[in-house]
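Summary for the funding panel

The consortium committed to producing paired sequence-structure records for every protein in the target list. Below we show the first two records in order, beginning with the earlier of the two.
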Amino acid sequence: MSNIIFDSGISLDGFFAGENRSPENPMGGVSPKIHSWLFKQKAFWKHINMEGGEEYGADSKLIDDVFERTGAYIMGKRMFEEGEVHWKEDLYKADVYVLTHEKREPWVQKGATTFYFINDGIQSALEKAKQSAKGKDIKIQGGANTIQQFLNAGLVDEFFIHIAPVFLGRGIRLFENIQDLYDIQIVEVIPSDLTTHLRYKLTRK
């Protein structure tokens, strides 16, 4: 049975992304600060179909595990628009459901990635993603608003956050206006040189 998960980096003061986001300025330009641990890992570059990285260790294994367990993705329109012009072909290697008001035919890529554009809300996207995932997990890829919608609908089973030791001071917070719907269990705390990995299990109250 599929779990619904997300896996996000944030700053110490809780920001997921910076201001003034656009395709020319993805994530508001804060990725080098929040995701520096990620960019160091060979596993990250392998999964985005590029060469790079300095090491393959415990952090890389975490990245591999999340990709391996994920059978479908859901994301918001803003994240898709920021990434569409930059992503390599067949980045996700699974079906991706984009929440949008735009009506658009599926974007079928070479390989296993197809983007579907969903106009009737998160429940519709989730039902379609469950069919695609075939028992693997469904990852809510982002952005922050999309993750918040799933949290506030009581639909999330588990999440990882990776807390970078930086203060941003402004931007888009990941946990903004979240309702108290869950009992939350800390499952794992993994220290690393450039971040702290935290895994939580959520149970509806």
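The next record, for a separate protein in the list, is shown here:
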Amino acid sequence: MESFFNIFAWTMATPVPYSAFHIFISITGLFLAAAGAFLVSSRLPCSRVLFFAGLFLAVTEVLKQGFLYYIQGQRHFDWWYFPFQLCSIPMYLCLLYPFVSSRLQNVFRTFMEDFGLLGGIMALAEPTGFLTSYWFLTLHGFIWHFILVFLGLFSFFDRKKHGHNKSAAAFHQLMPLFLFCCIIATGINIWAGPEGNADMFYISPYYPSLQPVFHQAALIIGIIPGNLLYLAAACLGAYIIHRFLIFVSSS
């Protein structure tokens, strides 16, 4: 297995945020994600697109985990990379999508439109977490978040195609899923312990959030209040996107 993952171990100079590389690949990827979402939404059924997107994300995540374990981690597992960040959730939702009720499908799609778009855009705006010295990991990070943007926009365009406009109430119906994911993330963080380096959803109870601004806030008001502030800000950001999409769909 180590020999297999060595095939992907091409090194690079770690890209700098807001460098020409970052700006070029981000603009190109966002354009392709938006154009692809618009074109595919008029040609393929939603269930098939979401499931196969989830399958693609899952396969690439398995490859990433193998690479991290055998190459970067030298056969040591790092809980920091466990796949349960906010940007990981659409992968699970896409895989489950064909097998749940229509009510849950609507919730899943709202999550991808609101929190998925938020996570994809914010990660591309501040990409430090996936800019590495390996081409494979860096490109994986960019492609993953381009797909999040694609999924959110695809779901939105598909709704418009079928005349199903977003409603304000849909965001409130989404919150139990978000809170459920937060509980799981907290459980993983606690189970891994203070030495495990797990920071799912960036709400570890053991050390301040590493997210810009919220790290400084946690140093001032405390870790738990800082985590709650971060989650509240994430909800606010998702709600702004939700309202913006309602405005666009009604215009």
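Regarding this second record: The chain has nine helices and no strands. Residues 17 and 127 are 6 Å apart (CA to CA).
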